[in-house]
Design a protein that fits this description.
alpha+beta; two-stranded antiparallel ribbon
Length: 95
């Protein structure tokens, strides 16, 4: 179900982006290292990548036509219901 839900979001983003770079950030509740991970499967199917550090994160990014320059995981120190959040710096790729 999570694969279908995120897949629908990524398909809509792709339609709206019309070939331009796209970055989707969200709470996808998946683990990229899990072979049965629905969000990861949807990202693969629609050609998005996860610039993750290899750690299982709830907060994730789906990126297409952008190059990740820096990726870091930050502690939230109790400011949210998640112990960590991810931050990225990207360069948008041109056609």
């Amino acid at each position: 179900e999570r694969e279908a839900q995120l897949g629908a979001v990524l398909k809509k983003v792709e339609d709206l982006a019309d070939g331009l770079p796209a970055i989707v950030a969200g709470d996808f509740n998946g683990k990229r290292t899990d072979a049965y991970d629905g969000p990861g499967k949807a990202m693969d199917r629609y050609g998005y990548t996860d610039p993750g550090t290899g750690k299982a994160l709830i907060d994730r990014f789906a990126i297409k036509r952008a190059t990740v320059l820096q990726h870091t995981v930050l502690p939230t120190q109790g400011g949210t219901d998640h112990p960590h959040a991810a931050a990225i710096l990207v360069r948008l790729d041109t056609k």
